[in-house]
Amino acid sequence: MHATRKLWTWLAVICVLSFSVLGWVGTEIYLTAPPIPKQVISTDGKILFSEGQVQLGQEAWLSAGGQQLGSVWGHGSYVAPDWSADWLHREALALRAVWAQQEFGKNFEQLNLGQQAELDAKLKNEMRVNSYDSKSGNITLSPARAQAVAQVVEHYVGLFGDDPKLDKLREQYAMTSGVLRDPRDLQALPAFMFWSAWSAATDRPGETGISYTSNWPHEPLVGNTPTAGAGIWSIASIILMIAAIAGMIFLHSISKEAPDPTPPKTDPLFDLKPTPSMKATKKYFYVVIGLILAQVAMGVITAHYAVEGQSFFGFPLAKILPFTVSRTIHTQFAVLWIATAWLATGLYIAPAISGHEPKYQKLGVDVLFYALLFIVVGSTAFGWLGTLQHSGNDFSFWIGNQGLEFTSMGRIWQVLLFIGLLFWVTLLGRGLMPALKKPSESRGLIAMVFLAALCIGGFYATSLTWGPHTHYSMIEYWRWWLVHLWVEGFFEVFATAVIALLFTRLGLIRASTANSAIVLETIVFLFGGILGTLHHLYFTGTPTFVIAIGAMFSALEVVPLALIGVEAYKNYQRSKAAAWVQAYKWSILCFIAVGFWNVVGAGLLGFSINTPIALYYMQGLNMTAAHGHAALFGVYGMLGIGLLLFCLRGLSDRAAWSDKLLAPMFWSLNIGLAMMVFISLVPAGIYQAWASITQGMWFARSPEVIHSNLMETFVWMRVPGDIVFAIGCVFLALFAWRLLMGGKRERSALKPTAQTKRV
């Protein structure tokens, strides 16, 4: 107990210090972010962009699809370009062409090598000089550059408007015609795109050769190449990671771990009678399965748009379900079904652990269910309709689709979801309170489950921190507070604690050992995980020290994954500890799959793009998608399914349980995911990385690469894996249907008939 108390103290100290540093970094980002100009003018007095247009353009882009329609500074989807890289390249080419005509009367390609070299050097100087005046708030451009900017503005207005000459390009970008209908928005959008590219190429005040985005994206034309810090801190982070893994393995080898206890002769939970609130969670799990099927269907459509940008095998699907909507639903439902599975698991196990059913607990579980269902349906429907009807910026922000990846639902829905999560924490706390008050060996585990749940609910408040006019750098800062700290922080803690608690209840591990182990693992997770948030913010207009902190601490996130394979093997051994454990075989195998995908998806694929030098070339490419699919579904999705199966085991008729359906479900999901990632996404990501390194980020995201024969072949090579994965989802649905129908038949058989009543 004394050792555990020390660990809790260390955990508190690490959390306080880490969040203090993360908060301080936020203030520095706010103070040093790329300035938003009042006006962009030329030296001959012409106004290119007027006051407020940059921020209005940001709102317009987000309402048009935002991070579901290409990306800015690398964050977003992968079919349309990264607009900051695209604008920067187009402006550089246009400026060179203007000078070639003005000075030599020829096209740039017709000049000799000396003349081309002269203009290339002049271009770098022109694009890198910081002409922002803090007193007037204006950015001043030369007349030649103003002429080049005007050419790119014309292209963007036509692209986001309805210029028929750009129909083919829109199809390649998976865009629909006229995504912006308001003329003010259409004129303002290029201002935001210009500003994002200007921030990426212009030197920071008082520095030379380093832009506000630390020279991202890679663009040799303007001298955007990796900074020295990106290389140095990448090397340092790898050294630290190797040293930390070696240290952890050494400590694990010398530590004396108590052996697992002798398992009970019978299932300790066999006679567990579900309380009314526990029974009420059953409908949550069926909604989870429905959301999985919907997410997979939207994933198939979204992936196909990479080949046919506006059609699905010739059918003009984009007229009713454009790419921005299908991808929004695909990413949003992934988070929602995983979170719903975890919420339901918490509500199920709380009375089972405490042995107490609080008053009105079932009513609370029912109210929360219908509230969450209302939020899911409402946010999806309004986001979809708002996109189709081009309802404007205010509608998109407040009730439609905010255009931000994983946090896309409108603000009203976010507020309602936050209230719902707090209500969930309240219900969970009511159920666990007797167990938390009663001294026991498991109390530390129960406390960790509740604290993780409290953080999951409480930290959703970070999605409410930005407004429609917030600086884009600060939106990214707060967005990653939510996405990263949820996924790579509190979800990890909740998952680990819940699995340990279930194993202790089954008598397969000692509660005393699990108590200390969970606190220690939480320390390791959060020590790297909290400040590891910054690895998402290397190139989003942040100070250069963000690269150093993010690189070092994100490397530590990989350290605990080094021993997950050992833990997975132990779980496999526990699955054979007694004959009755086979009743939980597929839940335990899902937990083992979580360990595998933690190592492969979060560890290997995650760290492959984590270092600053790797991310510099690969941010916003398919290697990110490979990591995202393997980690999000492989780790948290498989955990959600494992918890779902565990809870349904206690809520369903055992005679209706079918391992014959669960076996193909489990193997199809895992094999299909592996095929999808390693046959399609990883090769596509490597090809794009080559394009980014050799020519620039603009090229890696251009139609020449995205719609090349090789890339489209990689998309088609994804089909076998998708089919195998979809088969696994179908088996899961069939399994759930069998449970439901089997339970109904059982209840029907128990009802007395008229004849039996007479007897």
CA-based gyration radius: 28 Å
- Principal-axis shape: globular
> Which stretches are low in confidence, meaning pLDDT under 50 for 5 or more residues running?
753-759
Proportion of residues in β-strands: under 5%
Strand order of the largest sheet: 2-1-6-5
Q: Kindly state the mean pLDDT as a whole number?
A: 92
From the helix content, strand content and strand pairing, which structural class follows? mainly alpha
**Amino-to-carboxy terminus distance:** 62 Å
Q: How many beta-strand segments?
A: 6
Question: Percentage of helical residues?
Answer: 55-70%
Q: What characterizes the major β-sheet?
A: 4 strands, mixed
Number of helices: 27
Organism: Undibacterium umbellatum
Transmembrane segments: 230-251, 284-307, 334-355, 367-386, 412-433, 445-466, 478-504, 516-539, 545-566, 586-609, 629-648, 669-690, 723-741
Domain Nitric oxide reductase subunit B cytochrome c-like: 37-218
InterPro entries: Cyt_c_oxase-like_su1_sf, Cyt_C_Oxase_1, NorB_cytochrome_c-like
